[in-house]
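thought: fold this chain, then report.
action: predict
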Amino acid sequence: MNIERLRKILLFSVFVFCCTMCFYSSSTAAATKNYSNFSDIQKHWAEKSISTWVQRGYIDGYANGKFMPNQAITRAEFCTFINKLLGYKKISPLRYSDVKGNEWYALDMGKAVAAGYLGGYPDGTIRPNQGITREEIASILTKVFSLKNVQKNALSKFKDRESISSWSNLSVNTVVYNKYMSGFPDKTFRPASTVTRAEALAIVDRIVVNLYDTSGTYGLPYDTYTIAENVFINSSNVVLKNVVINGDLYLTEGIGNGSVTLVNVKARNVKVSGGVTINNCDLDNVLIETTNVQKLRLLAQGTTKIASVDARSSVLLEEANLAGTGFNNVIINVPSGAHVEMDGIFKNVNVAAPKVQLDFLQGSMDSLALPLGARDAKVYLGTDTITKKLSIVNKATIKGRGIINNAEVFGDGVIFDKAPQKIKVAMGVKAKINGRTVTGSKTYSSGYDYNRLAPIFAKDYPDVEDVHSRGFDLLLKADKSCRAYYVVLYADDRVPSADEVLAGEDASGRTVPSDRRGNVSLTANRERSVAIDDLRPDEEYHVYVVLDNSGVGIDPPVIRVKATTEDTRYGNISGTVTTTKGSELRSVKVTVFEGSTIIDSTTTNADGEYTIYDLEPGTYNLLFSKSSYEDARTTKVTVSAGKTKYVNNSLQLK
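observation:
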């Protein structure tokens, strides 16, 4: 055998042994619990999972010496487990009538509230001892693991999909799509059913496949190997090296005030909640988010390249001894008043939140954008910094002695301590430069048409159409290419400001649920349709829309359009059309007949899905047709008031 090959095999064997020993050792005193004392887990289907989590100190049994795997896990027990797993430490005061503060779970319930994944009920309780439901767990997992909503409908296979609550619908769809949760043999999901202690661990097992929670070095010394699943680091002083991660990488708050080191790691999605040194790494998307008050530090070294950073918490982004591109595109979307520091060479930096304090200590930025949503930004430019292009649309203060090559100002209230080398101020806009007020005397061109300071809606827009019991389509068209922001509120809610619409908030500053806010890109004089779904039937809604553009010099107007959803006297037909081999089929015409009379028709979307709304209760026949395919029919489809009837079909090639 080749000596070099033998050396590699021996090194890999030693690595696997060491990792196995580390993986099954606990970082907490609670791990000394001998799980074999639990008389009720022997030969249980989840025995291996239970024993692993107990040995590692993340969950325990009861005083009676049993684990009780088939008992419903309570909201308090599940929160305690999640808090340990992700290292949550910040505690919010609890003002719930059923928690006095001296219970064993009081601190963990406070951590769950502080982390934002648990809330109370309208009656002022939080119900810690109530069994947690499947849809509640889906909602929590989506929040704590920052799972992205998926467009594909993964719920159509469940017979009881209509019983999934509107507040959890997207979360359930996401966890099912990612195969973290599944249904039952009878093709139900049972969203309101409680989850047993064993089932809860099994669900988390599918997400947390690789967990490093003790200090040490993990990875081959020379060769690179691939990890197919998610990787979690929940301890400081961990070094992970020479790995390609096909799943997601989570650096949890369990890292605390310490740090971890990544060496020659390649990953697509990374969530950072603790300090990290990144050496010779290739990372696509980095999300920075923590509940801790302390600022995180991300240090990029060597050949590291990071395509995109989404900073949602206070952070120091630092580059040192760098041969790679380091941090490229940075979006700063931190809470109002948060502090961000940057030290290095950056491409594009976009501040997307109000009242941000940004300190650029040294280095250069190709572009720094302070758009409309960055109102009252405070930027400090250190003496050894160069900002090649600075674009400001709202009130901001720029301090420090750093060099600004080119500045464009489109909003009033901008103050410069030091004059940029070149500055353009939009017509009618006032800026203060080195103590002197400058007023823009004309509208100028910088890649945009500024004959007007703002885009406007085309005639008869915005508007709504296809109103049904669960929602409607929002129609948008503007005279210029721009981005439209919208929020959907109840009719009796107060009117939000332009800044609040841009931030996806209502007039009280509360974030609107994700299915009732959004933004889309508009092409000049082309209609764009946005589907608004999961609304209440027979309810009046007001949609507030704002057009934003980097060339806006004043706050844009907030446009309101009204829509009242249909009542539940009508029903819907929905489903998926595939080929006989199971592939989704788009552009299939679906026609609804009552007897021989055509009632309505539609076509399937890119995922083969269709919905026909607001049919009177009754019995209908469906015709599915597409060029090059044999027609298919479904007869005697009964539609009930306030219900959606799901009808799937498949077409055979001619």
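thought: worth noting. Residues 3-23 form the longest helix (21 residues).
final: tokens above.
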